[in-house]
Structures are given as structure tokens and as C-alpha cells.
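Postdoc handover notes: sequence design on the structure in folder B. Input C-alpha cells:
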């Protein structure tokens, strides 16, 4: 897809010189005229004009910010490196918009955007997926594309965790015909452009600053992506899209905060967030209510419970533990303040994807206003997507040890009160009733799929080569990673 873009840039460079030569020639036209070379003069002017037009077509908007659609131009660090993700840097959310050498807008851009977003089956959806180079976004994009829906992805490729993994997901998507724009959800002009170019039926909004403990280091990134960014997406969908799409977005199980009355149901209280991350997701649910109420936007919030699987997030416990076990480095496990095991309702990615598609398929139409229309108010829904069977984190580690053929060096400490909660457990009866959501993957089976991918992606030789394995990884200090997110 960037072929056109690269082409245009290359042509532009080539075009400049002949154009200048021709203009010089045109200025010497008097001599030509006196020499009665009228024909040559006209041909020269025509050629100059043609070159100017060509130039304009390939540079539709020299002033607009630049970004690229898709993948192949950006495979700078294709070689995955185990351990390279150990220190999340502060995300530079706008960097990817600058200096990539392409522009948005223009005929070639719109053609690429439309091609990706156009369904390939009758009645197929056309979905804008934000956070498409992320873990859940990549899986959902592939599943939508596989059944013939149109998908356009958008991601800012920030460095919260290894951007090379996001680029690898982007290449995977490109190979299946899904383009991912390198852009930020806070770029309102871009969103407006997109909704003008494509009649999206749905938005699957998954872009967010995830992770619980990182908020202590970079609080403003949570506000920028999870609050301001959410508003930008709702604004564009409500005001600049015709027709208004239905929006399905990722909230989080973390909104249940310090609740202990398990399993958690959607009508349980959510006013005691234990982290800034949880607070921004809770704020998002309130913002969703307002946009549904005022603009008749169909909105569905999905409260994910600790999603894991292949192509997962390196900042999450199962992933970082796997890396540490392979590298022979210690892992830190938390014990609840009352001494109980920390437990998580680990939910396998394929189950979550089925839930996301079910929510998209059953989302009612946006109505343009809350009431007064024959169609009635637009839907406002919220669903838990969990596995309904919490497992102690120690058990998760035992499964990983078995799969990796190596013991973990464990350090157990009391959970600090910096964002994690001791326990999650979903009641999914609403999702089961409304779109047949039935989580079907045990932690053993799901982690086996994860480890298969993990070993392959990082080119590990797991069987009986512990020394070589440790040698392959760079030394990094042990990190207790968040089990929730
Ligand atoms: N994975 C889980 O266990 C879990 C649990 C609860 C909720 N969630 C939520 O689900 C969604 C997807 O999570 P994930 O695990 O795939 O995380 P992820 O970090 O892998 O995916 C999010 C993607 O969004 C992108 N992004 C972030 N801010 C952006 C911005 N301002 N503009 C454009 N792109 C931006 C990131 O680059 C990333 O690729 C998130 O909203 C997350 O909060 C995830
Ligand atoms: C799950 O939620 C449903 C609907 O809110 C409720 O009827 C049911 O009793 C809940 N189940 C449990 C085990 O709490």
C-alpha cells in the first residue's frame, strides 16, 4: 500500500528538475517565437502544465501532517529481541505522525483507505479499529477480515512496550489486506477525514494507555489516550460521520476496583477505582453515557478481564514471567494483604475476540439523538467479557514452568497498594444472553497456545538448552509485572 506513497515521493524528486529546465526554456520563449517555433513553444507550455498537474496530484496537501498507511515501509526493527521490552519508555504519541515522508488526504490515500475498509461479503460491516496494532486490536481485525468485513486500523505505535511487536502485528495484518494508519486518536482532523472518506458502520475503539502501575510514572498519558482520546473518537463518530457508526469500546474489569462480592456483575458498584487506569476507564463509561444521551450514539462498553494469548502484551504478568523463566531471572509474585493467593479471571484472546464480534453484530443503530425518533433511543450497553473461573497466579506460573520445561525463581511479597487488585471474577450472563458469549478456553490450553507463539516469535530453543536460552537474552533486572490491566 505505501507503494503509491513512496512512488509519489520518488516522482516528486524526479519531477522538480525537468520542470525547472522547462520553465527556463519557457522564459526564453521570445527567441523561439521570433524563430516562428510556435509549435515548440506551445508544446513546452503544455508539458510544463502537465508536470505541474502531476506534481499537484502526488502532493495533494503539502501542509497536512504526514503518516503512512500500512506496514512494509516501517519494518525498521523486524528482528524481535527477547528482553528488549523490559523498560517501557514514555510514549511519544505524536512522533509517528511526523517525518514519515507521506501525507494524508489525496486520491491515492483515499483509495487505500477505502480498499481496506470495504467489506467483501454482502451485508458485511465496515469497521474502524483503533489500537489495531495492539494485542486485542490485531486479533479482532484479523477475525473481522477473515469473515469478510472491511477493516481499517489506526494506531500510534507508541513505545509503552516494544513497538517492534506492534510493527510485526501490522505486517501480519497487511498480509491479510488490513491497513493500519500510523496516527493518533487525538488527531481530530484525521478522524474527520476518515469519516468523510468511508461510511463506517462500526467503530471498534481499543486504543488506550493500558497497564496499571505505569500510571505512577506517566499519569498524563492515561488522560491523553483514555479520556481525551475517547472524547475525540466519540466526537468524530457523533458529529462528523454520516451515517453515525455504532461504537464498541474497551472498558476494563478494573472498574470493579476493590469489590469483593464475586462474581462481578455489570450492575455492581464501580465507584472505587484502585488505579488511575481504572479511574480513566470509569470516566470513559460516564463519557459514553453522555454521548449516547446527547447525540444518540450507539455505544457498547466491554469490560475485559485479564486477556492473554499469542501476540500478547509484554507488560502483562504471564508474558513477562515467561521471559524471566526462560532467562533464569527471578519473578516477583504478590500475596494479598490478608495472605490469600492473588487470583485472576484469565480470559483467552479467542474468547474475547468472539465477544467483541458478538457485541459489534448486535449493536443497534445510532439514532442521531436520544429520543423523539421513531426508532427509539440509541443503545447504551456494558458487558463483562471474562472467563468466569479465577485462577491463582501461582497456578499460572506452574503451568508456564511445565510448558517451558524450566522452574521459575520465585520471590513472594505482599501486594503493594499501587493499582493491582487481589481478585477478579466475571459474571458474563448478560453477554451470554445477548450475543451467546461462552468462554471456552482453559488456562492450560490458552497458555499452551501462548508459549507456542512465544517460542516461535523469539526463535527460542526450549528443549534442553537452558544455557543457550539464558545466553540469548539480555540481562535485565527482574520486574514484578501487573497481573491485571
Ligand atoms: N489486555 C487486557 O487484559 C485488557 C484488560 C482490560 C481492558 N483492556 C483494554 O483493551 C484495549 C486493548 O488492550 P490491549 O491489551 O490490546 O493493549 P495494547 O496496548 O496492546 O493495544 C492498545 C493499542 O493502542 C495504541 N494506542 C494507545 N494510545 C493511542 C492513541 N492515543 N492513539 C492511537 N493509538 C493508540 C497502542 O499503540 C496499542 O497498540 C485497551 O483499551 C485496554 O485498556 C485490555
Ligand atoms: C450473574 O448475573 C445475573 C444477571 O445480573 C444474575 O441473575 C445472576 O444471579 C448472577 N450470577 C451469580 C453467580 O452471581
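Designed sequence:
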Amino acid at each position: 500500500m505505501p507503494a503509491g506513497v513512496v512512488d509519489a515521493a520518488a516522482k516528486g524528486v524526479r519531477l522538480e528538475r525537468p520542470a525547472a529546465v522547462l520553465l527556463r526554456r519557457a522564459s526564453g520563449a521570445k527567441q523561439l517565437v521570433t524563430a516562428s517555433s510556435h509549435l515548440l513553444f506551445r508544446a513546452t507550455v503544455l508539458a510544463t502544465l502537465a508536470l505541474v498537474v502531476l506534481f499537484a496530484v502526488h502532493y495533494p496537501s503539502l501542509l497536512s501532517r504526514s503518516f503512512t498507511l500500512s506496514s512494509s515501509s516501517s519494518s525498521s526493527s523486524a528482528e524481535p529481541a527477547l528482553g528488549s521490552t523490559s523498560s517501557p519508555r514514555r510514549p511519544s504519541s505524536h512522533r509517528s505522525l511526523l517525518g514519515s515522508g507521506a501525507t494524508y488526504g489525496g486520491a491515492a490515500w483515499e483509495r487505500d483507505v477505502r480498499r481496506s475498509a470495504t467489506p467483501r461479503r454482502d451485508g458485511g460491516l465496515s469497521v474502524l479499529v483503533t489500537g489495531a496494532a495492539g494485542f486485542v486490536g490485531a486479533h479482532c481485525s484479523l477475525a473481522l477480515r477473515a469473515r469478510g468485513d472491511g477493516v481499517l486500523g489506526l494506531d500510534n505505535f507508541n513505545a509503552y512496550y516494544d513497538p517492534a511487536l506492534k510493527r510485526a502485528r501490522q505486517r501480519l495484518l497487511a498480509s491479510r489486506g488490513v491497513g493500519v494508519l500510523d496516527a493518533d486518536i487525538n488527531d481530530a482532523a484525521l478522524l474527520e477525514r476518515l469519516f468523510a472518506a468511508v461510511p463506517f458502520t462500526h467503530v471498534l475503539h481499543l486504543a488506550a494507555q493500558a497497564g496499571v502501575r505505569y500510571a505512577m510514572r506517566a499519569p498524563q498519558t492515561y488522560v491523553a489516550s483514555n479520556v481525551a482520546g475517547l472524547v475525540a473518537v466519540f466526537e468524530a463518530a457523533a458529529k462528523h460521520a454520516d451515517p453515525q457508526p455504532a461504537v464498541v469500546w474497551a472498558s476494563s474489569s478494573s472498574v470493579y476496583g476493590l469489590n469483593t462480592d464475586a462474581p462481578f456483575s455489570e450492575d455492581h458498584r464501580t465507584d472505587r477505582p484502585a488505579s488511575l487506569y481504572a479511574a480513566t476507564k470509569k470516566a470513559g463509561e460516564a463519557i459514553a453515557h453522555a454521548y449516547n444521551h446527547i447525540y444518540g450514539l450507539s455505544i457498547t462498553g466491554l469490560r475485559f478481564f485479564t486477556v492473554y494469548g499469542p501476540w500478547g502484551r509484554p507488560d502483562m504478568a504471564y508474558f513477562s514471567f515467561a521471559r524471566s523463566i526462560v532467562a533464569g531471572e527471578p519473578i516477583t509474585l504478590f500475596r494479598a494483604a490478608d495472605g490469600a493467593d492473588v487470583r485472576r479471571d484469565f480470559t483467552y484472546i479467542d474468547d474475547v475476540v468472539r465477544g467483541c464480534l458478538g457485541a459489534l453484530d448486535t449493536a443497534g443503530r445510532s439514532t442521531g439523538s436520544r429520543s423523539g425518533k421513531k426508532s427509539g433511543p440509541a443503545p447504551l450497553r456494558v458487558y463483562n467479557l471474562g472467563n468466569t473461573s479465577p485462577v491463582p497466579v501461582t497456578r499460572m506460573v506452574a503451568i508456564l514452568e511445565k510448558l517451558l520445561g524450566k522452574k521459575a525463581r520465585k520471590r513472594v511479597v505482599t501486594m503493594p497498594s499501587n493499582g493491582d487488585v487481589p481478585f477478579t471474577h466475571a459474571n458474563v450472563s448478560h453477554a451470554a444472553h445477548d450475543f451467546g458469549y461462552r468462554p471456552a478456553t482453559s488456562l492450560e490450553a490458552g497458555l499452551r497456545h501462548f508459549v507456542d507463539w512465544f517460542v516461535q516469535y523469539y526463535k527460542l530453543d526450549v528443549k534442553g538448552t537452558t544455557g543457550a536460552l539464558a545466553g540469548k537474552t539480555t540481562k535485565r533486572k527482574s520486574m514484578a509485572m501487573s497481573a491485571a490491566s
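Context for whoever picks this up: The CA atoms of residues 60 and 105 lie 7 Å apart. Don't rerun without checking with the PI first.
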